C-alpha cells in the first residue's frame, strides 16, 4: 500500500518520495516558512524549490527548525537559465546550498533547456561533476522534451535521473512519458492541478463525489497511479493536509480511462521550445 512517505527508486538507486510540496510563487519569509513547516509537520518528506523562486532561505529555515534529520528529507532545487554554463553552474549550486543552509541537495535540476542559449550540455557536465564528487545525490532536468533529451544524451556520461515537466489531465505527455520510461528517467509533474484550473472539471467532480474526495485529491491520486511523482503547491494548511490525503482510495481502470480522455495537450506554462528567458 502506498503512503505519504512512499518512494520510487531512481536509476542510481536513490529513493525519491513519490509526493512532495512545491513552493513556486510562494513568498520568501513567513509564507514559505509556514508552508514548509506545515508540510513537514504533517509528514511530507520532499520539498521542491528553485533559485528563481527566491525563497530558498525561508525553505532552509523551516527545514532547520523542523528538527527532522537531514537524511530523512529530500530537497530539490534548480539551476536557473541565466546561471547555465560550466563555471556558472558550480557557482549557482553553491549559492543555492548557502541560501538553503544545507551541505548537499538530494536532487538538482536544469530548470529549462533554453534552446536559444544552447548551454544545457555544458551545464550538465558541471552537474555530472558535482554528482561524481558526491555533492548531489541525484541530478536531472526539467522541461526537457524528447528532442532535448536526445541531444543531451548524445554527450552525457550520466542519464538524468528525473525529468520534471508540466503534467496534468489536460497535458498528459504520453510519448514523453514513454520515452522517459525507456531511458529509466523518472517523470515528475509540475502544476499537477494546472494551477487550480482543473478543479471544477465535471468529469473530475463526478469521480471525486464517487470516492468522497476533492477534485485535487483525484488528480494527485491519478499521478501516483501513473507512477509520476507529484509536488502540489499550497500555502494553506488545510490544503497541504488535504493534498496528502490520497492514500486511502484507488481510481478504477474506468476512471483512469475517463481522465485519459481529458487530454487536450494544453499548457498553463511556457512551451519549453519557446522559453528563452534568461
Ligand atoms: N520546473 C518548472 O518549470 C516548474 C514550473 C511550475 C511549477 N513547478 C513546481 O511544481 C509545483 C506545483 O505547481 P504549481 O505551483 O505551478 O501549481 P499547482 O500545484 O498545480 O497548483 C497550485 C494552485 O492550486 C491551489 N491549490 C492547491 N491545493 C489545492 C486544493 N486542494 N484545493 C484547491 N486549490 C488548491 C493553490 O492555491 P493556495 O496556495 O492558495 O492553496 C495554487 O493556486 C510548484 O510549486 C513548483 O515547485 C515547477
Keywords for this entry:
binds NADP nicotinamide-adenine-dinucleotide phosphate; 10 helices; 278 residues; TIM Barrel; alpha/beta
What does this structure look like?
This protein has 278 residues and is of the alpha/beta class. It has a domain at 17-197 and 228-233: NADP-dependent oxidoreductase domain (TIM Barrel, Alpha-Beta Barrel). 39% of the residues lie in helices and 15% in strands. It has an eight-stranded parallel β-sheet with strand order 3-4-5-6-7-8-9-10. A two-stranded antiparallel sheet has the order 1-2. α3 links the parallel β5 (74-79) and β6 (105-110). NADP nicotinamide-adenine-dinucleotide phosphate binds at residues 22-24, 48, 111, 142-143, 164, 190-196, 199, 214, 216, 231-236, 239, 242-243, 269. NADP nicotinamide-adenine-dinucleotide phosphate (NAP) is lined by residues 22-24, 48, 111, 142-143, 164, 190-196, 199, 214, 216, 231-236, 239, 242-243, 269.
Amino acid at each position: 500500500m502506498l503512503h505519504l512517505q512512499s518512494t520510487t527508486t531512481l536509476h542510481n538507486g536513490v529513493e525519491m518520495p513519490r509526493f512532495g510540496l512545491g513552493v513556486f510563487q510562494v513568498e520568501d519569509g513567513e509564507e514559505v516558512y509556514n508552508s514548509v513547516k506545515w508540510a513537514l509537520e504533517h509528514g511530507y518528506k520532499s520539498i521542491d524549490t528553485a533559485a528563481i523562486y527566491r525563497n530558498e532561505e525561508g525553505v532552509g529555515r523551516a527545514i532547520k527548525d523542523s528538527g527532522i534529520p537531514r537524511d530523512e528529507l529530500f530537497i530539490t532545487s534548480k539551476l536557473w537559465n541565466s546561471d547555465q554554463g560550466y563555471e556558472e553552474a558550480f557557482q549557482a549550486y553553491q549559492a543555492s546550498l548557502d541560501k538553503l543552509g544545507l551541505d548537499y541537495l538530494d536532487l538538482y535540476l536544469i530548470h529549462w533547456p533554453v534552446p536559444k542559449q544552447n548551454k544545457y550540455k555544458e551545464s550538465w557536465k558541471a552537474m555530472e561533476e558535482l554528482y561524481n564528487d558526491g555533492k548531489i545525490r541525484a541530478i536531472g532536468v526539467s522541461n526537457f522534451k524528447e528532442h532535448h533529451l536526445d541531444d543531451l544524451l548524445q554527450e552525457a556520461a550520466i542519464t538524468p535521473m528525473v525529468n520534471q515537466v508540466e503534467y496534468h489531465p489536460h497535458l498528459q505527455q504520453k510519448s514523453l512519458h514513454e520515452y522517459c520510461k525507456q531511458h529509466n528517467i523518472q517523470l515528475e509533474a509540475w502544476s499537477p492541478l494546472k494551477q487550480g484550473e482543473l478543479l471544477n472539471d465535471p468529469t473530475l467532480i463526478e469521480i471525486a463525489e464517487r470516492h468522497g474526495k476533492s477534485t485535487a485529491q483525484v488528480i494527485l491520486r491519478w499521478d501516483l497511479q501513473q507512477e509520476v511523482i507529484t509536488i502540489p503547491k499550497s500555502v494553506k494548511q488545510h490544503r497541504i493536509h488535504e493534498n496528502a490525503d490520497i492514500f486511502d482510495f484507488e481510481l478504477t481502470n474506468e476512471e483512469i480511462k475517463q481522465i485519459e480522455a481529458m487530454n487536450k495537450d494544453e499548457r498553463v506554462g511556457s512551451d519549453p521550445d519557446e522559453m528563452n528567458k534568461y
